Amino acid sequence: MIKLKVVQIGVALAILLLAMPAAAHKVSVFGYVEEGMILGEGYFPGGGKAKGCQVELLDSAGKVLAQTKTDDQGAFKLKLPKAAPPLKLVLIASMGHRGEYLLTAKDLGLGPTTPKNTNPATGKEGPAAQQQDKYAGAAAAVDAKELASIVGKAIDQKLAPLTAQVAKMNAQRQISVTDIIGGLGYILGLLGLAAYMKSRKQK
Amino acid sequence: MHISEGVLSAPVLGVGAALSAVGLAVGLKKLDYERLPQTAILAAGFFVASLVHVPIGPTSAHLILNGLLGLILGWSAFPAIFVGLVLQAVLFQYGGLTTLGVNTFSMAFSALVSYWIFARWIKAGNALGAAAAFGAGFMGVLLSAIMVAGALALSGDEFFTAAELIIVAHLPIMVVEGLLTAAIVSFLGRVRPAILANGKTG
């Protein structure tokens, strides 16, 4: 029968479409700081890239500090302005979709820095070393201090893409089967509740 | 079709919530005992349909099925769509809780209009019924798109730019929904004609 065919085709089409990745209806954005620039990307769930979307950087008062657009890869670059953290990245996709990401002081590299912690440790060298050469000891202390800050910065830089990767994975989190079944369960529960209320009214 | 948090202005959100509340009240009042199960089933269908994505060029959109809900449920499409949207917002982070009112109204009112226009022909016969079902599926998405554009326009966007963008992006969805609605309605017409007949009381 023709009508049966239509149903079959419809079902086949639906199954086919189910397998398709990428989606609109929710957009995520994240960013990290590298060498005075804020780098970031915009994503739809499932990994679709948010292309050509408006990106705004807001300060804590909600004032727009900078804006740009994402490129074909959904990526964007903004110069890090001198403003007090936390800063908010807002990505405005078309059709009423909007995503936010908060850049904290730590993300901006303005958090408590490492030298403070390492200073006392490096300052207390063995008595033999102190006696040998005061100048050398002082130089070593300064070097250690600088070194700590350099290492700290380097680690931050190396970690930045990793942090971004984690944010990206969060943004790309797929809808799980548990969510779907949970939702269907809620609907069943509501049906039961409504049926109960209505059946009491009928009696 | 799901508008995110923080996009619309407060008055638009308020009006959307108020209109949806009215629709919900009428829908719940008209929802009688016998039609509870099919309302729940269609709410479940609506909830899951949003996971069926249709890729369109650089972006993609998903099924909504509001035309189908309207055809079968009439006013009761309001509670069905509302429940589906609440769960989508909480579980999938589609749309948002503050935009629930606007989103419910844009999808459920379109469903209702599709019902008003097309429901009378559904029982008429094979070809006409299928054409009407296609029309309802197509119309449900089209009207939602126009209403979303309207909501965005009232919050500052340029109406025609927004409307054009949303309608063009959803054209394939409209066609797919039309076909799917026609397929489902003609299937129901053969196996359970009573479900379609019930819609008349809505």
What does this structure look like?
The complex is a heterodimer of chains A (203) and B (202). With 203 residues, chain A is an alpha+beta fold. Residues 16-24 and 112-126 of chain A have low confidence and may be disordered. In chain A, helix 2 runs antiparallel to helix 4. Chain A has 5 helices and 7 strands. Chain B has a single domain, classed as Arp2/3 complex 21 kDa subunit ARPC3, CATH 1.10.1760.20. Helix content of chain B is 74%, strand content 4%. In chain B, strands 1-2 form a two-stranded antiparallel sheet. In chain B, helix 1 (10-30) crosses helix 4 (77-92), helix 1 packs across helix 5 and helix 4 crosses helix 5 (100-122). The model of chain B has no long low-confidence stretch (mean pLDDT 87). The chains are: A alpha+beta (203), B mainly alpha (202). The interface between A and B is large, with 45 and 57 residues.
The rough form of chain A would be described as: elongated
**N-to-C CA distance of chain A:** 45 Å
Can you list the strand order of the major beta sheet of chain A?
4-3-6-7
CATH architectural arrangement of chain B? Orthogonal Bundle
Q: Could you estimate the helical fraction of the residues of chain B in percent?
A: over 70%
In short:
The complex is a heterodimer of chains A (203) and B (202). By secondary structure, chain A is an alpha+beta fold. Chain A has helices at 2-18, 115-123, 127-132, 134-171, 177-202; strands at residues 28-34, 37-43, 54-58, 64-69, 75-79, 87-93, 97-103.
Topology:
The complex is a heterodimer of chains A (203) and B (202).
Chain A: H1 2-18, E1 28-34, E2 37-43, E3 54-58, E4 64-69, E5 75-79, E6 87-93, E7 97-103, H2 115-123, H3 127-132, H4 134-171, H5 177-202
Antiparallel strand pairs in A: 1-2, 2-5, 3-4, 3-6, 6-7
Chain B: H1 10-30, H2 36-49, E1 53-56, E2 59-62, H3 66-73, H4 77-92, H5 100-122, H6 126-154, H7 159-191, H8 193-198
Helix pairs in contact in B: 1-4, 1-5, 2-4, 3-5, 3-6, 4-5, 5-6, 6-7
